[in-house]
Amino acid sequence: MRILSGILVVYLISTLLFGQLIYVARGRFHYHKRRGLSDPPPPPPPAVTANPPQVPSDPYPNPNPDPAPGDSDSGCIFDVTSFGAVGDGSCDDTAAFKDAWKAACAVESSVVLAPEGGVFKITSTIFSGPCKPGLVFQLDGVLMPPDGPEEWPEKDSKSQWLVFYRLDGFTFAGKGTVEGNGQKWWDLPCKPHRGPDGSSSSEPCVSPTMIRFFMSNNIEVGGLRIQNSPQFHMKFDGCEGVSINDIQISSPKLSPNTDGIHLGNTRSVAIHNSVVSNGDDCISIGTGCSDIDIQGVTCGPSHGISIGSLGVHNSQACVSNITVRNTVIRDSDNGLRVKTWQGGTGSVSNLLFENIQMENVLNCIIVDQYYCQSKECRNETSAVRVFDVQYRNIKGTYDVRSAPIHFACSDTVACTNITMSEVELLPEEGELVDDPFCWNAYGTQETLTIPPIDCLLDGSPVVEEGYNSNPGC
Question: What residue stretch is flagged as signal peptide (predicted)?
């Protein structure tokens, strides 16, 4: 009995001591005041985790018209409406765009956003760099200039509107529209106006190019609709590394001087998967251009794809390595054109035109070394040399008002090494009225050409010893 009592005493003492130890441990862990043993223990403290906000990034690392706006992982978005832009199509939003640009330019991988639903009017503006890498101008709304010359501020340049200057690694993209409000410029009496017979009257006058990239490298343009420019829609001067993808350029067929894309002194350019319809050249390539790749483009109505004009005022012109593939040209005054002035120097070389579909084109294939815009041009002995030109798989229909193939080369500097392969051009309506025309043009037919081009000369021309027809290029 004594043993049982002793065991009971030991059990009671152990239970009390164990409970006290639990109480002390709980009190120390939670740093609470004394609690009763019957109180439930407090819940453990919540774990602290970093939860940064989701931030959008470059929405168009490779220009794409479909990504959701803002669905990205870039560092910062600078919405122009946060800087005071109204976007009602009436208020002047220039200051807001400049402020947003200035802020974004200083931040790596930033986005200047003109959001969907806004119609933003700005005056002639230069968006200049250098800026931090990865800058994006994302246009999802509508961007437009003042409506015509009377509304244009006196202090602003009338030769350009939207200028991007000294940028590297810049993207201009979105699902929005650049609206040029060009009608009142086209109606100016000093503009050349096309008559019913194709003739024009008056000389060109100053009107703004809508978008200009100047002295900039590694530029991407994609997804945008660009329309109704007062003059050229988009122009690249002194640039290198340009990618244009999935854009639409449009203006009326008779809108004067509204070239779609113009390149000057610009190298390494890709123009892909785009549609251009306008009142002048679909794509024009000026002097100083090389390594140009054009693919998947639809042109027309337009004046076609042109190299030149080159060599004006006895100047030197150098153009090389131009490729045009998988392209459609329809309802156009010209198809594939090279045009040079007499008296120039330099060369146009290594041109490849391949897999081209023509639909009702007036001058499908043309080299014109007698280009002139007035009746006062005189015959000159020097010329920009044209050589190494390939036309492969060029098929479709032509307007019978002019011969579909026209090689008018300089009397003294012949066109050489022209290759024709699988060229088949048939009348859109009626019957063939003119055979192909050649003057001082040398080349070969790898396959039978339709219509037959028997006027190409074989071999190479005889040139005087020491003659250099390609100075400086």
Answer: none
Model confidence over 95-136: pLDDT tens digits? 999 999 999 999 999 999 999 999 999 999 999 999 999 999
Residue 80 has pLDDT above 60, yes or no: yes
Angle formed at CA 398 by CA 279 and CA 387, multiple of 5 degrees: 80
Task: Tell me which of 233, 262, 303, 406 is the catalytic residue.
Answer: 303
């329309």: which residue's tokens? 227
Other residues' Cβ atoms within 10 Å of the Cβ of residue 117: 10
Please check whether residue 77 is in contact with residue 70, taking contact to mean a CB–CB distance below 8 angstroms.
Answer: yes
Measured CA angle at 278 (ends 275, 281), to 5 deg? 90
pTM for this predicted structure:
0.82
Cβ atoms within 10 Å, residue 464: 6
Which H/E stretch holds residue 397? strand 385-398
Distance CA 156, CA 25 (A): 79
Pairwise CA distance, residues 79 & 100, whole Å = 7
Is residue 272 within 8 Å of 298, Cβ to Cβ? no
The SS3 call for residue 191 is coil
Strand partners, 227: 179, 250
CA distance 238 to 215: 5
344-394 confidence digits (pLDDT tens): 999 999 999 999 999 999 999 999 999 998 777 888 989 999 999 999 999
Tell me the β-bridge partners of 263: 236, 285
What average pLDDT does the chain have? Answer: 84
Sign (positive or negative) of CA dihedral 123, 129, 131, 134: positive
**Cα–Cα distance for residue pair 144/121, rounded to 1 Å:** 5
Q: Is the peptide bond before 130 cis (omega within 30 degrees of 0)?
A: yes
pLDDT in tens, 287-329: 999 999 999 999 999 999 999 999 999 999 999 999 999 999 9
Beta bridge partners of 146: none
**First-to-final CA distance of the chain:** 121
CA distance 236 to 289: 10
Contact 213, 164 (CB under 8 A): yes
Exposed e or buried b per residue across 204-235, where buried means at least 16 C-beta atoms within 10 angstroms of its C-beta: ebebbbbbbbbbbbbbbbbbbbbbbbbbbbbb
Residue 429 confidence (pLDDT): 86
Q: Which two tokens stand for residue 297?
A: 């483009």
Which 3 state secondary structure label does DSSP give 13?
helix
Longest CA pairwise span in the chain (Å): 141
Radius of gyration of the chain (CA): 34
